[in-house]
Structures
1.
Amino acid sequence: MPNDLVENLNNPFEKMTKEMSIINEFIEVKKDLDALEKRKKKLSDKVKAMMIYEDVDKIVVGTHKLSITHSERKTVPTVTKDELVAKLIGIGKNYLLTYEIVPNVEQIMEELDAGNIDKSLVDKYIKITPITTLRCD
């Protein structure tokens, strides 16, 4: 967020010492945590590389046990998904395909707002959970 926008934002807490202390502490902890997460990732990559280099999958350091496991994530890229589906159907392997029918909640809510479906349907089948997100940029 550009500085001129930050300066124009209303801060009702700026004259409240206790509240500003809590807000400033939150900001500092968030910065520290972000830095620690970044450091943890780098160290994790280094430890994994050392263990792989030494061909070791488990080590004990004091009371801590570290282990690495090897696995593979197999995905079908969106770009080739339709082609793979067509090929599998073409060779009669339809059983290798799954079909998923999922309600489109956004469109259901639009239909409700437009008066095209009954509110009782939404009330019975759709859970609406309020979410409050705090961002610190």
2.
Amino acid sequence: MHAYLPLLSLVAIAQLGAVSASFRRRQDETVVNIEGEDEEEPPLELPEETESLIAMQFTDDPHAGRDHMEMIQNGELGLSGIIYAPKSFTASGGSDYTEVYGEFCAFDSALNKADPAHYPTIDAVMSQSEHCDEHSYTIPLREVMEAVSATDGSSNKMKRLPVTGLLFHIGYSGAGLVSNALTTFESAHVVSEHTAIRDALSACDIIRNRYLSEDCSPEKQSMLLRDVVTLLSRVPATSLARHLYLKAPSMSAAHLTELRSLYPEAKWAFVYRKAEDALAKATMRNRDTVCVKSRRNPSAALIAKARERGLDLEALSPHDLCAMHLATLLEAAVREHEASGTGMLISYDKDILSNVDAMVNVILPYLGLGEDIAANPEVAREHVAAILSMRSDTSMLREPEDQRWNEGGESIEITEEVRAASQAHMGELMGRV
């Protein structure tokens, strides 16, 4: 058995300049850098018989004595995040990425299928796991990939699903309703908003912005992304699932072309809404974290757009910055759609909002579920109607009346700042969708 790293040893890995996903999950699409702090006074000395104060805060690990690699091979542990160092993807030093670790823990992915609205994302699922909160295992990712490759072909315990669909979105645009509808089909395995996908896609951006280095090999980054998706594609051999659907975090739409190039056979869709509504939702109090923090970690697309317009990201107002960030997401989808003739651009207002027909007859068949719907159209329609009647995320809503959409629809306040910024940065693009 390998001596893998437990959660408490992440401090040591952090000295590599690594990024830990287990702590990031509480930071809504925000990358956190864990850095050791200088001790101003010596640590508290406890009596020998007294348990460590840190250890006392954690429950006993139920899997402490087991072979954790074997548990990954058998599907008992799932990927919860990735960690990498500033030099993990340097162009020199061989063809493989280095110093990349996966975080693994035990969680019940079936929660999403049992109640999609209450567990709409992988983070919501893992939040129910005490093991993920307290006992994640940090293991070199290349060792994991070698181990699963050695057993997946010969073992009858796990199978890999093909990537059937990729779902991107502008944020707060109803993409969760699409992924929740997909989840209701037995043949569909949906992985929604996984931070490992986000972090693999943005690895070179982070290394450029945080560590001021351009030495990041796209080929090694793509290898990491493919390995992440491979791990997410593994399901028990007894599962009825035949399709893997990946719903990417909103900011990952800036890297739409990169992800699609790895899975060209997969159908992809981008969900958007009116520019003013999208910006208003993104900049609501406590919701502007992602786009405002893009100032600190801008994507290559956002940097290029700022240069093209002669704008300084540091000097932009929050509304202008967020509007430009959202514009890069929409532009990535529009350009790919126009250049390749692939993809479906889905309007929240026209195609999703209370539109069972569009979902059942157009969107889901396009994404590969036509045969499933045709096999039992009445049941499929009933399930989709139930999904569209609920908010896409009810995890924080306790009252039943709050979990359902109001008949009058959603009320969104459009301020002058929102109107001006959305028109300046997103107006032209909206005319192309």
